[in-house]
Specification:
about 575 residues, mainly alpha, 5-stranded mixed β-sheet, two-stranded antiparallel ribbon, 20 helices, globular
Length: about 575
C-alpha cells in the first residue's frame, strides 16, 4: 500500500516465521473481537435512529410545495410512460419516487388539464386518493436512499480516517437536521447530493481499483445529473478527479509524460461516458421512444447558453429542461435574509444560511477536518476529493438567482461529515475527547428539534423558534404543517372564526380547516384567529403587514405558522 493511502489506524505487524501454533484467546483477542462486533452494531443504531426520525417526520407532515408535482409526474411515468411534466428536472429521482407510488396505485387522470402543480393537487385531493398514504409511500424510497447514502459516508470516511472516523462521519450525517428534514420528503435534493458523494467516493477508490471503480463513479455521477441539473458543475470536477485517480493507479508504469497523459484522459473519458449512459438510460426507462410533449411552453434560450445547450449529447427533454432552468434563473425572485426582504439574489446567501442551519458541532469539526486535510501529509491525497467537489458546487449555487434555502447546497453537510473525522489527526491528545464532545453536541442539538427538522437553526442563532426571523421558504416554512394546524384548531380553538394566509400546495379544507382569506375582506371585518405562514409573514407588506401589526401573537405551529388574535 502506498504511503498516501494509509489510514489513520495502525496496521498489525507482519507475522514472525515459524511453526504455526494456535494463539491463546487472551483478553486482547477478545477485545478485538468485541470491537469488530461493535462497529456494525453502532452503524445500525445510527442509521436506525435516522430512519425513525425521517419516518416520523414523513408521517406527520403534509405535502410541501414541490412534492405534489413530483408525485404526479411519477404517476404519469407509471401510467402513461411519457415525458410531459416537470422537464426542468431529469426523471431519475422521480422514478425513485415512482417506486413508492406504484405500491399505492393511486387514481390518476392523465387527461386532466392545467399546470403540473394543478395536476399534483388534483391527484392528491380531488381524485379520491388518501394524500397521507400516497405521500408516505412516495417518501419511503427517498428515505431508503438517504440511509444508503449514510453507508457511503461511513465507508468513505473509514477509508480516509479509519473505523472511528467512519463512525464520527456517520453520526454527524445521521444527526444533521437538514438531511433528516429533506431526506424525509419526496424531493430530489438529498438523492442528488448522495449520488455526488457516492461518485466522489468511488473515484477515490479508483486509485487502487480503476477498472472497476471508474465506470461506477461515472454511473453515480450520471445518476446525480439525471436527478437534478444543479449537479452538472460536478461533471468537469469528477472527470478531473477521474484523471487524477487513473494516474495514481499506475505510478510505476513507464512511457513518459505522454503515456501518463493518455492514462489521465482515459480515466476522465470513462467517467464522462458512464455518466452520459446513465442519463440516457433514465429517459429511456420512462419512454423508450423518447417522446417529449411538454404540458407547458419551453422558453427559447439565445446566445452562448443556447448554443451550449444545443451541443450537449443528451435527450431533447434534457435540453428543454436546461432551457427552463435558464428561464427560471432570469426571473426576479424575492429573497429574505436576516430580516431583509430583497429582489434578486445575494452571493453570500447560501453561506449565511448554512451557518444558521448547520449544527455547530458539524461546523467546527468540518472546518477542523478541512484544515487537517491540507496540513497533515498523509491526508493530503484525499484533499482534492473531499474539498474541491463541494467547493465547486457551492460556487455554482451561489451564482444562482433563487435564494430559497439550504436545500440547494445539501452536499455541504454531506461532505463536511466525511471531512470532519480528519480532525482526529491534528492533536492526538485532545482531538479524541474534543471530537466526541462536538459529535454529542450536534446530536443533542438535532434531538432537541425533533420532529420539526425543517425550521432548524443552531444555538448560535436562537434555535428553530427563531429561524423565521432570519430565513424563509424551505428553510422554515414549505407548507409542511397544514395538518398540524388543523389539529391545533380542533384542540384549542373549536368553533372560532379563522383567517388563513397559507403558503403551500396543500388544500386546507381537506384537513377540516374552515378559514377565509383576510386579504380579500375589509380589515375592519377581520376578527378572530389569524394564522399566517411564516414565509408569508416574512414578506408581509401593505394589507397583510397592517393586519399582523394590529394583532396579538398567541402561538405558533411547528415553528412555521404563526397564530394571532384580532
Amino acid at each position: 500500500m502506498m504511503a498516501s493511502e494509509r489510514h489513520l489506524v495502525l496496521t498489525p505487524e507482519a507475522p514472525v516465521p515459524g511453526p504455526a501454533r494456535p494463539a491463546p484467546a487472551g483478553p486482547c483477542a477478545r477485545l478485538r473481537r468485541h470491537r469488530r462486533r461493535l462497529l456494525p452494531l453502532l452503524v445500525v443504531l445510527l442509521l436506525a435512529q435516522m430512519a425513525a426520525a425521517m419516518v416520523t417526520t414523513a408521517v406527520q407532515q403534509t405535502p410541501t410545495i414541490d412534492e405534489p408535482v413530483y408525485v404526479a409526474t411519477a404517476a404519469d411515468y407509471l401510467r402513461e410512460h411519457r415525458l410531459r411534466y416537470n422537464p426542468e428536472h431529469p426523471p431519475l429521482g422521480k422514478l425513485l419516487i415512482a417506486a413508492g407510488v406504484a405500491v399505492v396505485h393511486p387514481r390518476y387522470d392523465p387527461a386532466y388539464p392545467g399546470t403540473q402543480g394543478d395536476v399534483g393537487r388534483h391527484l392528491l385531493y380531488e381524485s379520491g386518493n388518501d394524500p397521507w398514504r400516497v405521500m408516505l409511500w412516495a417518501r419511503l424510497p427517498v428515505i431508503a436512499l438517504t440511509l444508503l447514502c449514510g453507508l457511503a459516508v461511513f465507508a468513505f470516511a473509514r477509508e480516509v480516517a479509519g473505523p472511528v472516523g467512519g463512525l464520527v462521519a456517520l453520526a454527524l450525517y445521521s444527526f444533521s437536521p437538514d438531511l433528516v428534514a429533506h431526506g424525509a420528503l419526496a424531493t430530489l435534493d438529498v438523492p442528488a447530493a448522495g449520488f455526488v458523494l457516492t461518485s466522489v467516493w468511488l473515484v477515490w477508490r479508483a486509485r487502487r481499483r480503476p477498472v472497476l471503480c471508474l465506470p461506477l463513479a461515472g454511473a453515480a455521477l450520471g445518476a446525480a445529473v439525471a436527478t437534478k441539473m444543479s449537479a452538472l458543475p460536478a461533471v468537469p470536477v469528477l472527470m478531473a478527479l477521474g484523471a487524477l485517480s487513473a494516474r495514481a493507479a499506475f505510478p510505476g508504469l513507464g512511457g513518459g509524460r505522454r503515456r501518463r497523459s493518455a492514462q489521465a484522459l482515459a480515466g476522465a473519458a470513462v467517467v464522462a461516458v458512464a455518466a452520459l449512459a446513465v442519463v440516457w438510460a433514465a429517459y429511456l426507462a420512462v419512454d423508450p421512444r423518447l417522446r417529449f410533449v411538454p404540458a407547458e411552453p419551453v422558453p427559447v434560450v439565445h446566445g452562448l447558453r443556447g448554443r451550449l445547450v444545443d451541443l450537449l449529447p443528451v435527450p431533447e427533454a434534457y435540453r428543454a429542461g436546461m432551457r427552463l432552468q435558464f428561464g427560471l434563473e432570469d426571473y426576479p425572485w424575492q429573497g429574505y435574509l436576516f430580516g431583509r426582504l430583497y429582489t434578486g439574489s445575494l452571493w453570500y446567501y447560501l453561506p449565511a444560511a448554512l451557518l444558521v442551519k448547520t449544527p455547530l458541532g458539524l461546523l467546527a469539526l468540518g472546518a477542523a477536518g478541512a484544515a487537517a486535510l491540507l496540513a497533515v501529509r498523509r491526508l493530503r491525497p484525499a484533499a482534492p476529493y473531499l474539498l474541491v467537489p463541494p467547493a465547486a458546487l457551492l460556487a455554482a449555487a451561489m451564482a444562482g438567482s433563487r435564494d430559497f434555502g439550504t436545500r440547494y447546497a445539501l452536499f455541504v453537510p454531506v461532505f463536511l461529515a466525511v471531512a470532519a473525522p480528519c480532525a482526529l489527526a491534528l492533536r492526538p491528545r485532545w482531538s479524541g475527547p474534543a471530537t466526541g464532545a462536538l459529535v454529542l453536541f450536534a446530536a443533542v442539538s438535532s434531538l432537541r428539534t425533533f420532529p420539526y427538522y425543517l425550521p432548524y437553526a443552531n444555538e448560535a442563532f436562537g434555535g428553530p423558534a427563531h429561524t423565521h426571523r432570519l430565513l424563509h421558504d424551505s428553510n422554515v416554512d414549505w407548507g409542511q404543517d397544514l395538518g398540524r394546524l388543523a389539529d391545533r384548531l380542533r384542540e384549542r380553538y373549536p368553533g372560532e372564526r379563522v383567517w388563513l394566509v397559507y403558503k403551500g400546495s396543500g388544500v386546507p379544507s381537506y384537513y377540516g380547516i374552515r378559514a377565509a382569506d383576510p386579504l380579500t375582506a375589509p380589515p375592519e371585518r377581520v376578527h378572530g384567529l389569524l394564522a399566517v405562514s411564516d414565509s408569508a409573514a416574512a414578506k408581509a407588506r401593505g394589507r397583510l403587514a397592517a393586519l399582523i401589526d394590529g394583532s396579538r401573537p398567541v402561538g405558533e405551529v411547528g415553528h412555521s405558522i404563526s397564530l394571532f388574535r384580532r
